[in-house]
Amino acid sequence: xxxxxxxxxxxxxxxxxxxxxxxxxxxxxxxxxxxxxxxxxxxxxxxxxxxxxxxxxxxxxxxxxxxxxxxxxxxxxxxxxxxxxxxxxxxxxxxxxxxxxxxxxxxxxxxxxxxxxxxxxxxxxxxxxxxxxxxxxxxxxxxxxxxxxxxxxxxxxxxxxxxxxxxxxxxxxxxxxxxxxxxxxxxxxxxxxxxxxxxxxxxxxxxxxxxxxxxxxxxxxxxxxxxxxxxxxxxxxxxxxxxxxxxxxxxxxxxxxxxxxxxxxxxxxxxxxxxxxxxxxxxxxxxxxxxxxxxxxxxxxxxxxxxx
Length: 308
Fold this sequence. Notes:
By secondary structure, the protein is of the alpha/beta class. Helices cover 40% and strands 21% of the residues. The strands form four sheets. It has a five-stranded mixed β-sheet with strand order 4-3-5-12-6, sandwiched between helices. It has a three-stranded antiparallel β-sheet with strand order 10-7-11, with helices on one face. A two-stranded antiparallel ribbon has the order 1-2. The termini are far apart.
């Protein structure tokens, strides 16, 4: 196994096509194909499946490529240190629930990256896809929360996928609503006080089990429900309809806007926001930077109850 074979495999996975990967790597298609065949025979795994529509990565291939990319990143850093030239664009992907503080942390990683080029991905998506992205190595890190309602089920799923949860911070549930909302100046809100107002929650697609909900208080407990796909729409509906949602106390003025406030919700529950990643795989430089930035953003933006 050589670094060049790892580069070829990484290029094919990125392009989804052997011919396009060969063009980008400046080699002939037969040369690249033979290199991949030799690599698969040596490792005794199928990294790719071939079809008339191109190539796709197998599950074994996803695991292999995650390790291969770490090796390529390390080799690139060594070469850059001693020659001043980088041979590989830094790559990093994170999947997260719809948290403004996660976006802030991602922005810090991008701003701190001093490479001439990079290839970063931020996916705000549903809970089941976050777990699947990290399990299949499409993302290095996932960001989600555990609570009394979902912890047992999600912990079981994470264990099955070989993932672990690392807590960033703990908070009481808070109601996010407009600063002109009739309940905005209260010191705490009871669930029944929200009955007259629309509950805005994130749609979870076909995975509608309660433990996948992004909100601690699920829609089945509410009389008026509106489901959305993105944070901007949620913010508009909260302000335009006197709606609300329930989340952690971490509120970003930069991204949530100055017109949204967080008021403690009077229910017996806690929110543990954290990251998920593969056990036994060391984080990349960007992954480690993101984790530290996320921890800092969480704590700086949090209205977490100091008694926790």
